[in-house]
Amino acid sequence: MFSKIGIFGKYSGIQSWELIDKLIQYFQDKDKRIILDAYSCKDFPVERYGIEKLERDELLKEIDFAIVVGGDGTFLDVARTIVDYEVPILGINLGRLGFLTDVSPNLMIDTLDEVLEDNYQCEERNLLHVKIRLKNKLVFEQIAFNDVVLHKNDSPRMVEFETFVDDRFLSSQRSDGLIIATPTGSTAYALSAGGPIIDPDLDVMTLVSINPHTMSHRPLVVAGKSCVRIKPHDNCSGTASIICDGQISFQIGAKHEILVTRHPKFIKMVHPKDHDHYELLRAKLNWGQKL
User: Which residues does 139 contact at the CB level (< 8 Å), separation at least 6?
Assistant: First the structure.
């Protein structure tokens, strides 16, 4: 049973305070140790409750269960930092229905009762690991839960690049970019670009071109153990961006090389016992609605 609870809030602060207040009272009544994330709960008045607030690096060493109060963007940020600690994580949704923060506030307490009774679902999902090299020197390294995106900068000109899978040449293309997505990210930017929806239980990566300058490019699904290498054409001028989860970006030019692989560890996502991913898809995407 979980005994040391880490709570992460929405970064705009006060929007998540009411739910965090309820969580603190709930876990104090259960005699649990509660620690707030100093980064996302910077202004929360912990003194009022007599609980701890720690910097994230220290917090992750102390907890055995994480709760994110916010939206999918908040969840993505926390997931990237928590994955290597192998701490299970649960998302409480603020606002719109989320794919990752899938517990509504009105069901929060009932869900937590079930979790503390070991009556819940826990699934593992893969993440991506991206490295960027320049003249064989590592210049950028990051993790992505949804996707790693090569995208042109603010210019009408397309980018030109070659793609390799496990050192086998795949294609050369001119386009607005390329999305490399996890199954989790298949319902994010990749879906908007025409990619398939992938069951989150699958260990795969999806490659989706963004507005390719040809009718023959189609989304491709490759094994999760694959290594995807992207090499801009030597004659490219200007720069493009590598963007992780829409939150972290790095500028690249013609001499950079991008390597994307599966991250060695998987995120542990906690769901209510009756969680149904297909029901979530129907609700989020309005499937089966009468026109």
Answer: 132, 133, 250, 256
Mean pLDDT to the nearest integer, 231-259: 91
Q: Where are the domains of the chain?
A: 4-125+266-285, 128-262
72 catalytically annotated: yes
Q: 128-262: which CATH topology?
A: Tumour Suppressor Smad4 (2.60.200)
HEC readout, 95-160: CCCCCCCCECHHHHHHHHHHHHCCCCEEEEECCEEEEEEECCEEEEEEEECCEEEEEECCCCCCEE
Q: Which residues pair with 174 in a beta bridge?
A: 160
Determine which one of 31, 43, 72, 118 is catalytic. 72
**CATH class in words for 4-125+266-285:** alpha beta
DSSP state of 286: T
Give pTM, 2 decimals.
Answer: 0.93
The Cα–Cα gap between 124 and 180 comes to: 19
Residue for token pair 């709930």: 26
What does the pLDDT look like over 134-179, one tens digit per residue? 999 999 999 999 999 999 987 778 899 999 999 999 999 999 999 9
Residue 92: pLDDT band with limits 50, 70, 90: very high
When pLDDT is averaged across residues 25-30 and rounded to a whole number, the result is 97
Give the confidence band of 12 by pLDDT, cuts at 50, 70, 90.
low
Q: Which of 265, 231, 251 is nearest to 128 (CA)?
A: 265
- pLDDT tier for residue 15 given thresholds of 50, 70 and 90: confident
Determine the average pLDDT of the residues in 265-272: 96
Helices (H), ranges, 145-214: 189-192
Pull the structure tokens for residue 243: 């963007």
